[in-house]
Amino acid sequence: NAGVTQTPKFRVLKTGQSMTLLCAQDMNHEYMYWYRQDPGMGLRLIHYSVGEGTTAKGEVPDGYNVSRLKKQNFLLGLESAAPSQTSVYFCASSSAWGYTFGSGTRLTVV
Amino acid sequence: GENVEQHPSTLSVQEGDSAVIKCTYSDSASNYFPWYKQELGKRPQLIIDIRSNVGEKKDQRIAVTLNKTAKHFSLHITETQPEDSAVYFCAASIRYSTLTFGKGTMLLVSP
Q1: Torsion over CA: A104, B38, B108, B10 (sign)
Q2: What distance in Å separates residue A18's CA from the closest CA in chain B?
Q3: Most buried of A68, A74, B98, B101 (most Cβ within 10 A)?
């Protein structure tokens, strides 16, 4: 039982490049989330999903897109990376029993 | 939307002392309040949570209190130990939906 798995764990991008972060959960959770964490800012919600085929914007959605084609997967895309998107990205899923976080992806945009 | 304020941003205590971290929230509909501990380079780990139908919850050296009228909740750590040093986050949500986090408190426990 892996819980929430994020790939990749580290990535360096050049400005303007694109990439997709993958989040996979094996707990059959309906709700999934993408957060970014910056020093002194806590975790801020980028996008979330309340079920397969649904997505919604969070607090800081600009520059990101998401998809939830399968219940167990939640993808976060950066179409044209900017240095301001340098951050640590956490995926999470939840049920009535609580939240489970992935181990994070450290992304650097140069 | 929900707004969560957390204080202090840093807290230094001596080993064995108590530590208190306070949070306020803005949305009276919030009913779930977890606290997370995050060590450097690691994911947030749930240490305790409280639901709105409860005023206080305790788990060994950790306790959380909730005042719904004033819309604030606090984390209390007693008999602090050096391994308690980490960043602590409070959060609030409505029925296990999106979490809104405070900005964190860096707790330093000196031996």
Answers
A1: positive
A2: 25
A3: A74
**Model pLDDT for residues B11-35, shown as the tens digit of each residue:** 999 999 999 999 999 999 999 999 9
Torsion of CA A68, B101, B76, B27, to 10 degrees: -100
Q: Look at B1 and A98 and tell me if their CB atoms are within 8 Å.
A: no
Neighbour count for residue B35 (Cβ, 10 Å): 24
Cβ-defined contact of A96 to B89 (cutoff 8 Å):
no
Cα dist. A83→A14, A15, A38, B24 in Å?
Answer: 8, 7, 13, 32
Place of tokens 């992806």: A105
- pLDDT (0 to 100) of residue B94: 85
Token representation of residue A77:
């895309």
Position A39 scores a pLDDT of: 87
Question: Are A19 and A105 contacting, i.e. CB atoms less than 8 angstroms apart?
Answer: no
- The CA distance from A48 to the nearest CA of chain B, in Å, is 8
Interface test mutation site (partner A, options B9, B43, B90, B95, max chain A beta carbons within 10 A): B43
Cα–Cα distance between B36 and B93 in angstroms, integer? 14
